[in-house]
């Protein structure tokens, strides 16, 4: 059992709360306590638990397609030890709460064999569409860590921030033409697009890719377009399109892997803005604008 100090706030939380997601297909029933990510301190363990002990600082999470239900907007959370990673002393629990959903979604979108399939050191050219939010902040840095060349879209307000994440080519999606900038950067097309915005945020994304390239669209569950048709059309044009859903099968291990990359200095956790749990309404209102840089978290007392 974890005494929650900070709960991560993710777009899925407000989409559930606002009734945009039919929760039944995920095996969830209303009413429910929202919240996928939590960081805090272990206050009790079951008899068979070996990985953590009382007093350990930990981070944990779940997702919608999971045998563990949401519920991290709470003072206490009971989780399986396989979903838990230890937070080292130099990482605050506030920062750790940013990792599970955003970090692992980015990790899997880039590296999972059924998604981006990126290997380290291939010199791949990647576009991260939506680089300044939760998922994008991890994706840019992890792609750089893997040795890729990274183009990243953001608005002018976030150019400096996205540059600080290590992006090689910054494209201001409000004032620049994304296609023109990418063609100047890589005339034969790029290898991989990770799109965390929506089906229609890029004009003809398949046309930006080289033959054999991949388009990984992180599923928004509200704005994914006609998925079957777009996957079939991409295939006809020699490109693989994947609608990506984070899975939490190896959550604890994958979160630990990200923490290890943080430890060696190759990943900075996103900047946070913390709200008291009592002010969750304001946090959701802010996230719903779609303008958050980094991550919002809730401080649980
Ligand atoms: N399927 C899954 O398993 C899964 C998992 C995690 C997340 N998701 C989904 O992935 C999406 C992204 O999640 P997130 O946590 O990264 O969201 P987020 O943190 O709320 O993203 C906000 C960021 O998006 C940027 N943005 C908005 N419109 C943009 C555009 N047209 N082009 C480029 N950047 C734009 C904003 O920057 P500006 O202010 O500069 O515009 C802002 O910094 C959400 O729809 C979420 O539900 C799905």
TrEMBL record:
GO terms for molecular function: oxidoreductase activity. It comes from the Bacteria. Gene3D superfamilies: Medium-chain alcohol dehydrogenases, catalytic domain (3.90.180.10), NAD(P)-binding Rossmann-like Domain (3.40.50.720). InterPro entries: ADH-like_N, Chloroplast_QOR, ER, GroES-like_sf, NAD(P)-bd_dom_sf. Signal peptide: none annotated. Pfam families: ADH_N, ADH_zinc_N_2. Residues 8-298 form the Enoyl reductase (ER) domain. PANTHER family: ZINC-TYPE ALCOHOL DEHYDROGENASE-LIKE PROTEIN C16A3.02C (PTHR44013:SF1). This is NADP-dependent oxidoreductase. The lineage of its organism: Bacteria, Pseudomonadati, Pseudomonadota, Alphaproteobacteria, Rhodobacterales.
């Amino acid at each position: 059992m974890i005494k929650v100090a900070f709960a991560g706030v993710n777009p899925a939380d407000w989409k559930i709360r606002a009734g945009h997601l039919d929760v039944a297909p995920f095996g969830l029933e209303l009413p429910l306590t929202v919240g996928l990510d939590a960081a805090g301190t272990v206050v009790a363990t079951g008899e068979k638990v070996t990985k953590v002990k009382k007093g350990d600082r930990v981070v944990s999470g779940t997702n919608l397609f999971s045998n563990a239900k949401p519920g991290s907007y709470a003072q206490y959370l009971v989780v399986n030890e396989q979903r838990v990673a230890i937070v080292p002393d130099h990482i605050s629990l506030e920062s750790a709460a940013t990792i599970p959903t955003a970090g692992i979604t980015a990790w899997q979108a880039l590296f999972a064999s059924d998604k981006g399939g990126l290997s380290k050191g291939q010199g791949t050219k990647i576009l991260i569409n939506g680089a300044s939010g939760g998922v994008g902040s991890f994706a840019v840095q992890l792609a750089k860590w893997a040795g890729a060349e990274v183009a990243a879209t953001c608005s002018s307000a976030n150019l400096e921030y996205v540059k600080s994440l290590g992006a090689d080519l910054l494209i201001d999606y409000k004032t620049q033409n994304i296609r023109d900038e990418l063609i100047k950067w890589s005339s034969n097309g790029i290898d991989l697009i990770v799109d965390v915005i929506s089906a229609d945020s890029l004009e003809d994304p398949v046309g930006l890719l080289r033959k054999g390239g991949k388009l990984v669209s992180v599923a928004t569950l509200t704005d994914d377009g006609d998925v079957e048709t777009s996957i079939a059309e991409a295939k006809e044009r020699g490109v693989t399109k994947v609608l990506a859903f984070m899975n939490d099968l190896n959550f604890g291990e994958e979160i630990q892997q990200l923490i290890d990359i943080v430890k060696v200095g190759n990943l900075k956790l996103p900047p946070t803005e913390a709200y008291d749990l009592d002010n969750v309404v304001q946090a959701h209102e802010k996230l719903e604008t779609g303008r958050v840089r980094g991550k919002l978290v809730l401080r649980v007392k």
